[in-house]
Design goal:
The protein is mostly beta strands. The protein is built from 3 helices and 16 strands.
Length: 285
Amino acid sequence: MTVLGVRGLFRIPAALILLVSLAVGEALPAAGSGRVELAPREGGTYRARLPDQEEVRWTADWVLERIEEGPPEVYFVRDELRGEFGRRDTSQVRVTEARFLLEDGRIRMLQSVLTVRDPEGEVLRTLEKDFDYRERVVRTVERDRRRGRERSREFRMGEELVDTKEIVSYLRGFPFPAPEAAEEAVGRRIEFRLLNESPTTYSVRAEYRGVEMVETPAGNFSCHKLRLVPDLGILTFVGRWVSPDLYMWFTVAPPHFWVKYRGLEGDLRTPSVVSELVEFHTSAQ
């Protein structure tokens, strides 16, 4: 599922944005997160709406498929969003295609390509990312067709760099507690650096907030609740007064698939949205 960002900070299923907190708790390094478990094939549909409204703002379909058994396993994922986005309710189609490795329960991105089109199919923008683990860098190429501009950049991977395309799968590996230990685990957190689709990088803290029942079009689920806290320097302290909280919910039952997101759709000028699961399916083949 997609993540986009600062300028529109990051987009998880819809978009993850400025969120600020000074909460304390049990700190865990990202390397201490749990194993990610994926079926050979997963897919489904999710949608976004404005809070307290039933009208659908945009819908998305995704498919994740194992294309090499390995080890390590190689996966391909395709995510397509259609509808209205941003503060101007611009109609767009946004498609992300990516490949990644699943090795010892950890995701390692290989390549991803984001393509943004208008409703008539004209390409407005593309963003390509290539992950070089030998040199420990990510190389990006952004092409803005409207402005006739192309920009190439490099980002150091560091110890734990998470791409926007992998963040939902990555957080399925959060060290979730057993349900009976949920209350004691509140405040547990992991930290990592996020590479968004601006593109730029910044630190993010994922913080455990307990277990809740969540109602979605796909059904009712007992879920672990996570709060995401980007560290944007001085913007963090400015944003805390104007930005709503940002939360994600994952099923208590393994493999902890994503169920719901609540937060801003893009930057501080965009509306808050609720993005929720409509359909989820897996296959052993």
